[in-house]
Structures are given as C-alpha cells and as structure tokens.
Batch of 2 targets.
Target 1
Amino acid sequence: MVSYGFLSIVPPLLSVFLAIYTRNIIVSLSLGALSGTLILNSYNPFFAIVSLMRDHIFMQVSNPSNTQVIIITLLIGGFVGLLEKSGGSKAFSTSIIRFVSSPQKGQLATWLSGISIFFSDTANSLIVGPLFRPVFKELRICREKLAYIIDTTASPVVILVPVASWGVYIMSLIDNSYTGMGIEADPYAVLLDVWPYQIYAFLALFSVPMIISTGKDFGSMAKAQKKYEKIEEKQIVAIIQEKNPSLIMIILPFAIMIIVLSSVLGYYSITEGVQSIHVNAGLCLSYVFASMGCAFVMKRYQGKTYDQSMSVFFEGAGSLINVATVLALAWALSSICNVIGTGPYLASLIGDNLNPAYFPIAVFLFGAMMSFATGSSYGTFAILMATTLPVANILGADLVLTIAAILSGGLFGDHTSPISDTTVLASMGANCPHIDHVSTQFPYAILTGIMTILAFILIAIYQTPYMILIILLVQYISIRLIMLRWGS
Amino acid sequence: MENYGFLSILPPTLSIALAVYTRNIVFSLASGALSGALIIANFNPFMAFAEILEDHVFVQLAIPSNNQVMIVMFTIGGFIHMLDKSGGSRAFAGVMVKFIGSPVKAQIAAWVTGLSVFFTDSGNALIVGPLFKPVFAELKICREKLAYIIDTTAAPLCILIPFVGWGVYIMSLIENSYAAVGIDGDPIRVLLSVWPFQFYAFLALISIPMILSTGRDFGPMANAQKDYNRAVDTGKLIDVPEKKQTENHKISTVILPLSVMLATMVIYMGYFAYMEGIKSVHVRAGICLSYLFASIACGYLMKKHQNKPYDESLGLFFEGMQKLVFMCVILVLAWTLSSLCGELQTGAYLATLIGDKIEPSFFPLIVFLLGAIMSFATGSSYGTFAILMIIVVPIAHALNAPMVLTIAAVLSGGLFGDHTSPISDTTVLASMAAGCSHIDHVSTQFWYALLNGVMTVLAFIVVGFYQSPYIIFLIIIIQYLSIRLIMKFYGRNTFEEKNTLLT
C-alpha cells in the first residue's frame, strides 16, 4: 500500500473544518470524501468522482450491517411518525410531565430512558429524542441539552453491555489481535477484565446526573439555554390544551415493541448468542409490530384507516431520509480514511520509547485524536487493536489497560467529533442544529476526557478496578466547583 | 433442496389475490413474503419472521446492485422534485403553447409537450395538464380529450426511457429475477433488447397523432365532445378560459440541468463503453452522478434567478427523496418475495404444472393478458411488474419461452391495465390535471386504450410466429388502418364547426 503520510489526514480535517465553517454536514462530508478520492486517484477529478460513488458510497451502503442500520433508521422514523400523529408521544409527554415537574427531573428521566435502551445506539437517539422533545419544550429546556443527554447515553451505555452489538464487535477485535500475538485467551473473559476500566464510558454516563443535579450549565450550553429562554419568552406561550389522547396510544405500541424485542433477543441469547444481525432483526421486527399496534389503536380510537396509517408511516420514514444520507456519507468518509491510511499514520506517530505504565495514556490520546478525525469509533477500535496491542505486548504494558484505553479514547473522540454518525443521530433525534449540538457538548465531553486522563495516570501509579470510584468522586467535586464558578 | 410442490405457489398467489382484494400493494407483497417464510420455516411464526428479515430482507438489500438501485432512485426523486419546484419545467412546456392555431394542432401540441417532459411521469400530467387547460377551453375541446392525451404520454413514455426511474426500477426487477433462476444477464442489455418489443407503449404513444390526424372521435369520447359543445352553446357550461399565469421562470432552469445531466451521462457512459464495456454498476454510478450534477446546476440556477439559498434547494432535494420511500419499500418487498420464490422454486413448479400444454412461443401473450388483468384490478403497474416478473421469468426459463418477449409482455400488460384502470394513480392524476371528472376520463379513454390493447395482442400473436423487432412497424401500420376504418364508420367530426368559427 502506498503511504500518503500527512495527506492522509486531509479528508477528515477538511470535513471537520468545513462542518464548523459551513455548518452544513452534508456538504462538508461530501467535500471531505471527495478530497480523499482525489488524493487516492492522483488528482484526476473524473476518476475521483467515479471512485467516490462506486467504491465508497455504493460499497458502504451495501455493507450488510450498514444497510441494516439504514432500514432501522427508516423504520424508527415511520414508527415515530405514527406516534406523533396518533398523539401517543403527546400522551407520553403529558404523563411524564405529571410526574416530573421540574426541568431537573425531566432531564433525569431522559437520562434514565436513555440508559434503559441499552441495546442499540441508533435506537437510543432516535427513540428517546423525539419522545422527549415535547417534554423539554414544556419544561423550557433547550434542545441542545436533550441532544447532549441522548448522545451521552447512546454509545457509552451500549459499549458497557457485553452481550449487545458493540460488545460482540469488540470481542471479535480482541480475539483477532490476541491470536495475532499468539496469546490464548477467551475474548469474553478479557472483555470482562477490561470492563471496570472503561473509564470514559462510566464517567460520561455519570456526568449527566452530576451536571443535572447542580441545576446549572456552563460554557456554550449555558449560552444556548439563555438564548432559548429569550426566544421562548418572545413567543406567546399559548399551549392549546387539546383533548388528551389516552395513554393506550403509547403503552400498547411500546409494550408490543418490548415484548417482541425481548423475545427475539431472548431466543437468540439462549440458542446461538446475540449477534448484531439478531439485534437488528429484532429491532426491525419490534418497530414493525409496534407500528401495527399503533395503527390498530388509531383505527380503534380515532377511526383512522390502515391506509392512512400506512402513509403516515411512510411520511415518517421519509423524514429520516436525510439522516440516512448523512450516515451514508459518513461511512464513505471513514472508508476513505481506511483506504488512505489515516489511522495507521496517526498510530505511527506513537513512539516506542515510553514508560510502559504510561503507554495506555498515550493510546487513549491517540485514540481520541483518531476517532475525532475519522468520526468513527468502530474504525478506531479496529485500527488501534491491531496496531497498538502488539506494541503494548512488546513494551510489557498492561494489555487490559491498553484495551480499555483504546475503547475510552475511541469513545471520547467519537463523542466530540462533528463528523461522527452517532453525534449526527443525536442532533437529528433532538432536532437541533448539528453544529450547535457539537459545540455545546464539547466542553462537557472535554471535562469527562480530562477526568479520564487523570484516571489513567492514577491507574498507572496504582492499578485497581476500584479507581473508578475515586475518579467519580473527583469528577463530582470538579463539576460542582466549575458550576459554582462559571455555571449559570 | 426440499420440494415444496403445491405450497410453493402460495406466496405469489396470495400476493396477487390480496393485491386485487385490498388494493394495497405493500400489504399484499408483505403477506405473500411472510407466507413464503412460514412455509420455509415449517410454519413456526417466530422463525418465519427471523428468516424473512435475516435471510431475505437484509440479504437482498445488502446486494450491491439492489442497494445502488435505491440510491439511484432516491437521487432521481430528489432531482425531479427540485426541477418541479423550480418552475422551470412549466416554462419549458410553455414554449409549446405558442404554436397553436387549430384544435388538431392544439392537441398535437399537447402530445409533443407530453413527449418532451420525458423525465417525470407524475410531473408529466401535472405540468402539461394545467398548461393546456386554458388552450383547450379556448378552442372548445373537451377536457376528457386532454386527460386522455396526458395520461397516454405519461407512463408509456417513461417506460421507454432506460435512465429515468421506471427504467432503473425495471432493470432491478429483471436483474433479481434473472439471479433467482441463475441466468447471467446484464440488466441494461436485457432492457435494451426488450425495448423494441414494448408494444403497448409504442402503440399508445403513436395512436394519439393517428387519432388526431383523422380529426374525429368515436365512442364515448365523441359523445363527451358533443355534450361539451352543447353545454357551451346553450350556455350551461361557461368555460371561461382561465387567465394564464404569468410566470417569469426562466426556461434555462430546466434546460441547463437537463443538459448537464445528459452531458454527464454521455461522458461517463462513453468513457466506460470505450474502456471496459458498460456494466450495470457503471450505468448506475453514471445515472447517479448525472442527476447529482443536474441537481447542483438546478440549485445554482435557483440561487441565481430566484434567490433561493442552497440550503433550501438541499431541503427540496430531500423532500423529493422522501416521496420515493414508498416505491423503494415496494422494491424491497418485491426483492424479498422474489428471493423467497427462488428458494421455494415456485417457477419450476408452475412450469411443470403448465407443462407442454402451451406453446412456449405464445407464453408472452398469456403473460400480457395476465398482466393487464392484474394491473387493471390493482391499479398499479409498478406492483404488477414486481409480482409478475418474479413468477413469470422462472416459468419462461423452464418452458424455454422467449425471455425477452416475456419481459416485454409483463411491461405491456402492466401498462395497459394501468392505463385503463379507474383506480390507477396515474389515471387519477391525469383527470385531476385536466380538470375533468374521473369517471368521464376513464370511460372516454377506455375504448382508445382498448384499441391499443387489441393491437398489442395481435402483435404478440405475430411475434409468436415470427420474432423480429421490426414487427412493431407492421403493427403500427395495421393500427393506423384500423383507426382510419373505425373513424370512417363510427367517427364523428366534432370540431368542424368551430374550425370555421375560428377562421
């Protein structure tokens, strides 16, 4: 393979830069991807365009797991469309508001629901987001906060569940590189060893209630909230009290969804283990059945014909078509990064002359950089597992910690990156401008990132799984301090 | 592989029956597919659902060509919507209105305009209809005639153009059914060899100038015109020509994007044809790129002439994409059903049932009639194509019937049924756009369409004896003669008096 050296980080950098500058994620992803294919095709624009279409967009979309994600995305869109039309989501928000009277409780409820959807990062953003939008509106909390909460409860939760799709993927990576190094180990056992050291995931998850408990915000989030309140005040708050749709509109579809999903997942966990294709099939089925349930209650209580419900479903699915487009472009960009060797280039920057105890910190930082640049935590995991684990083995660094550092770093970069698919999904779910979501989330994520570095330093000095508890305490205190000083 | 025997024809039969009964193509295809999965999974509903998703829907969608078709469809949808919204196509079609003097010329103009708006089927009716409504009112031609013309120039035209949505859709159906029976065939080549045999489309298109040239009408259409004349004369119907909207949309908003599209397509296809031979993936990439560039050009012009920001154009593009979700769902379900039928070996079983009872060379004729009935009953040519292609291609393969003709028969049959069906969306659209009552449009159009249908049957019979693409010319001559004859015996010249009035 030809090494492109510095050029290999041009496409992701261009995308990130354009995303910030133009605030249009589609344009920036396409131009970034195009720059990548230009480099790969020795600057022949004709071939660059053909290759972008043929070798990257077409290929990525037809990658089975990507296709499945698109199907799920569209199905969720249809389901949410039905819920909105049937008044189910309104019923949900009114009943939620009855229990949660204060903004703080509302945010906590969002956090809890985010955690409860632990099986899929896509579903997390796209279900919790639309459901809680009206709640946030009622409680006068800005959408950026919602986007932040659902983004934070998406991947960090999913990565901590060893039996769901991410866990399976990570285990396969661990298995690969362990066999490459000639170490015999059960990947599942390794993953369980790594589990308590997944510091970024834990810290990110717990930072949400910590921040909420202060009732304050700082940095750009505080500004966004203030701006939101100003706009809200201008609008005459005329909440038209419509006839409240009955709660069955939401309970039945969700009950169906949960039953179908748990029976499918339950069946597979007993028979052959839950692979990501089973999760995806289960999700599809549960949304289809839940939508049917929804159509049924709409027919029963509102006299809507099934034909009408079906077109509502298609409208809803159609409204997520731009999400699917962004996903396709993001995948294309990361496949280009893969071909052009962005990851290995960044990995080659890691020196070998490190104190083995501090090796995980370096890995964490590089993982974060790489994941931020490529917008793909999956890709980062794959590259770093393959490149840094052997180095760690030679240096005599702790393998478990190195894996934990890779996971934390990938997650951290992915969380902050404007070109990451999960970040895009979160802003879509919360229906807030993408760049606003990225910029408001950034300070919070950075705080968690700094805490993670601290944790890895402490662990280098004294290794124990209980370190996470100390760091949580430190994080809590620092959030309190920051809010005291800068919060509003 | 297990032999499912009689059970193997259940899925497509169920789909057809449900399609006719419920008129909901998504529901029927899904139920048919589910029944197939149930059979494969030994009637275990749990496994059937898992099977349908994991082994069929996911697999089918992940097949590169299927996937690319989706992308292409969405891109086309986005562009067409942008073009519609830019108002350019209206301006473009408006040019034709200038060359109108007599009723016959006005109708010919409507026909030519219909032909020139080849890039969109639903847009065709919606663009040409409102444009010619005032013209027809001024020249005292009944609206049913306008509805007939725009209905006839919509679908039959689009089906003949390989690079619009219809072509892409059909190619994908062909590719899938070919794959199911294990025949190698580049869909673009197949489609091109099917092309000269698309009898119904050709005959329908060419029938309009033939009928117009006689200056007469027959059957309900003549009655409609007479009623219209009487109503106008007695003042019962005051059909004031609506004032033409003064639209200052530049015609370039449609010319430039279309030329960008064609240029890109020619360059890409030309390059690949020259370098490595056109493969379907190149066709799809080429189509995709040309529509993308055309959309960019359209966005640029909208910015320049109408001051629409690019963000808004992008929004329009996505809106257009949304409209195609429905069609793509049908496609996915059709692929699924097709792969299930492949697994159940439906085609082979049906072929053994039919056995030697029919002459393979007349198989296309049967397919045509079947397609016409189904499409008439369901009102959806798309759905008919999807279901029939799955069933018929394997049978034709097993019977050794001419494959190209069979596909052509599916297309012609679906088109014919759709054209005559009162519940078809294109028919509804045509009457809406022409502003006439739907039932009147259906009944006046019926006899004209039936004439074409009879001619098509004749064509398939002749082709059964002697297969040559040039048969179409023979049939067109016969059609012309029969139209002349019919008009001579049953036709009435209903425009004559007004011709003199005008001059």
Note: Residues 496-503 of chain B have pLDDT under 50 and may be disordered.
Target 2
Amino acid sequence: MSVVLAVCEQRDGVLRKVSREVVTGARRVADGLTGTVEALVLAAAPVKGTEELARFGADKIVTLTSAAFSRYAPEGFVQAIAARVKSGGYRVVLFAASATGKDLAPRVAARLGAGLAQDVTDLGVEGGALVATRPVYAGKALAKVKLTAQPGLVSLRPNVFTPVERPHPGTPETASVAVTAGRVVVKEIKPAPAGALDVAEATIVISGGRGLREPANFKLLEDLAAAFGGKAAVGASRAVVDAGWRAHADQVGQTGKTISPSLYFAVGISGAIQHLAGMRTSKVIVAINKDKDAPIFKVADYGIVGDLFEIVPKLTDEIKKLHG
Amino acid sequence: MKIAVCIKRVPDSETRVKIASDGKSLDEAGVKFVLNPYDEFAVEEALQRKEKAGTGEVAIYCLGSAASQETIRTALAMGADRGVLLQTDRVPADGFEVAKALAAELKGGAWDLILFGKMAIDDYNHQVGPMVAELLDLPCVTAVAHLALEGRTGVAEREIEGGVEVVEFPLPAVITADKGLNEPRYPALKGIMAAKKKPLDVKLVSLGAGGLELLGMAPPAERKEGKIVGEGAAAVPALLTLLREEAKVL
C-alpha cells in the first residue's frame, strides 16, 4: 500500500487553512497510486479542526505531540517527520510551500537523502510516477519534473490547490513523540499589525506602484482594501519597495512574492517583466493606469485608463455600497 | 569571523525567457547574467560581519559553469577575500545534488557562518541552504530579514504569514538571506581592480542526477485578451458589473 503523507500546519493550536490544500493534493496523488492519505499534524496538544481533514480526503489523521511543538521547531519537526517516514510504507510526502514548509521540507529531504520538488503548482501521477510542475524564472516558464526516487517530496504553492471535498474516514490517532532539544528556537511570533493580511494569502490583492507618487497615498489603497472587509491585502511594486515606501514583505514580483489571488488590482504600476512574473497567475487582473500603452494592460482582464486619484476613491465608495 | 557565502549566477530579473531548442533549458542568447539578488544580501552581510569583528575571512563558493567566475569576481569586487568555483556544465534539477557538492567542499572549514540567498531567482528551489545545514549538522534559519549576533548567539527575524518569527540559534550556523537584511554595496572601481588579483580556485565537479528528472520546460499559458472598460472614475460602475457578473469575483 502506498501511503501519501500530508504534512499539515497549525499555529497556536488552530489548524491552518493551507492544510486543506495539502490534503487535497495528497488525495489526488493517492487516487493515482491507489494509496491512502495520512494527514500529519505536529503540535504541543491536540489541535482544533483537524477532523475536517477527513472531508478533504484524509484516511487517517495523526497528531504527534511534544512540548517542543508549541511553535515551529525546525529540528524537532525534522526528527519526528523523518522517523515516521522511515518507519515504512510512505511513497510521497507533501508539504505546503508556506514560510514554514519551505524551511522544513528541504531539511526533511536532506535527512532522508531524497529530492524535493519545491513550490509546485500542479501534481499528478503519470505511468505510476509522480510528476510535478514548478514555475521557474518567477513563472516565466514552467518546468515539469518527474520524481524518480522514493519517497518523493513535494511542497505545494499556497492558493493553487483549491480544496476539494472528498470524504474519507479520517480515523484520528494521537501519539506523543520524544525529540531532542533543538538548537534553533522560535522565541516569539510578532503579529502583523491588526487587520493586515499577507499578500501571499489574501484572496484580493491591491498593489500600488510609482503612480501613487508618494508613500502617504497608499492610504487610498488601504481604504479600498478595508472596503473589501478583511479579504484584501495591499501589495507593492519593486520600485516603491526599493524606494523605501513599503515593506519588502508586500513586494509582488520576481524578487518579491509570486501570488495567485482571485482578484488582483495593479494601481499605478506600469508592469515591468519582473512584476508581471509575480502576479500573472492571479485569476482576474484589473489595471488602473494613466498610460493607455502601459504593459500592465496586456495582462489585465479589465483596465481603466485615467487618474488613479479619482478612480480609486470612487471604487472604494462603490465597494462599500456593495458590502454595506 | 570566518564566513562562507554560497552564490549563484542567474539571468537578470528583466530577462525575457525563451526556451532553448532542447525544450529543457533557457536560450541564453542575449541574456544578461548577474549575481543572484538574494545572494547579494548574503555577501553584504558577510562583509559587514567581518568588518565589525575587525578580523576574519569571507570566502565565496559557487557551483556552476566556467562563466560563473565572472559572478565570483563581482562578489570579490564587493570585498570578499577569495573564491572557489565548483565547476560543472550541468546543474541537475535536484537541489540536493548541489547541496551535497557544496557541503562536501565546506565540511571541516571551521566556519562561524555559512550564508546563502534564500533562493535563486532562476530555479526558485528555496532549498540548497537548509539542505547544506542538514548535511553539516548545523543550526539553520532561512529567509532572514534581520540578524543580530551577540557573542556566539544569534537572533534572526524571518517573515511568516501574518507575522514575524523571532528565532534564536547558536553559532556556527547556516543563514539564508531575504531582502531587507541590509543594503548591498556596489563594487567600487578600486574593488573591481583588486578583485582581479584575489585568489579564485577552480575545481571540477561531477554531480549525480538525483531524484528529480527534468522532463521539459514550457511557457506559461497566455492570458486571454483583456479589455479596457473605460476612462476615469466614470468607468467604475461598469468595472464592478463585469467583476460581479462576468468574472464572478465579487
């Protein structure tokens, strides 16, 4: 029997939503291999919401507990996951390509002496082999790779594997594990300012560029984001991040984040190649720019040509009405 | 401070990607290659740490083709002391093979820090740094945007979804650099001249294929032709109607 291990994520005892995506991806692979899905959660104590993973296709839901796992503990996590995989039967190990997953997956791969396809946007089984698609050059090309060794390790780009309900038994199992004390210790998590969503996780992203003229004018975009009622994040082009107007965490593009929100607004952004690379997989793109020949209009589904200082406040008002 | 920095030669981020006739690689004709932007932060951090300590060494390691010598010279021009090129014509798709070659070279070097960029902007692998750490059994923090060292203890900050993780670790350690860690310097003319005389060892390496086989590369799907909804604020209601009724995203 081929078991597909879906390494899920929790924070502060609550299952993170990206776990549904990992289990959804695992179900797809397990069906291709006529195997089963084991969802794995590492935590200090049983985690709220793990039972929902059955809905997305988990045959078994395993929680491994250790006092060291109240926060992400890289060395302890590696030890526990590698030991479980080595215990046998695991054909594929899936992670989320989140901040944690991108840190954890390579360590587990090296511990197991296995290869890793990181940050994939498509995954399937072809002729019994695991085949993954990875954006390279920030998505300017897609590389298709076959995982030739076992186990095959893959991390899935967040927001790409839409959760699909595929109910399976989801038999729960909890065990405590002993891990050696790690040298790398997460001392605290400083939360982002209240209400600020991460551009990589938001379903709506509103990015601004040089067209905003000065940092204070990002208030216009923040107001628009607020009008969407907590679903939207404010992003930025490289030019304004390099100018110090916005934090690097907000940068969308090849040297920032590559994102796939449902709705992307490019406001006062001309559309340099490196920016387009970071947002072209958005489901719907809206561009607002005064230059009708700006390259951004070539990738936008909908464009408005004109003065953003008039258009954005109007948009904010209309969205407020819609949500009011 | 004895510091190793692992770097990579990559196509500039403004490159228009054209796939070569083999269907598996980048057509390099007319492509400008640069030091991977995230590696610039790693080199700068190493230089600042050495300068602060007043003593030490910054050694540059690079795995790649013969042309990577030029990339190493860029890091030497910034101020690094010496370079090592692990020369190979073929870099496999499996980052673990790269990590094994680098780890074998770095092993026993008595490094205080081994620095990487958090990822290379060509293959987006995000993995060689932490894999080298694992192979050398060193503590590792990835995607670090702020780093403080006090004696043999380090405190690093890394961005996570919705916050910043504050991570404590002992030296020696492996750190991968995110943007924001520092402001990389431009090589000055004096540095560029001095770099030409700095030692650069070239060692031929041969890497295994590893566990990933590259089947092919393809351009991303073209987005369908969009439309200009209108001009100015008057076009906003029409835009909202389209977003709601046609795109169904509102």
Note: The domain at 204-323 of chain A is CATH 3.40.50.1220 (Rossmann fold).
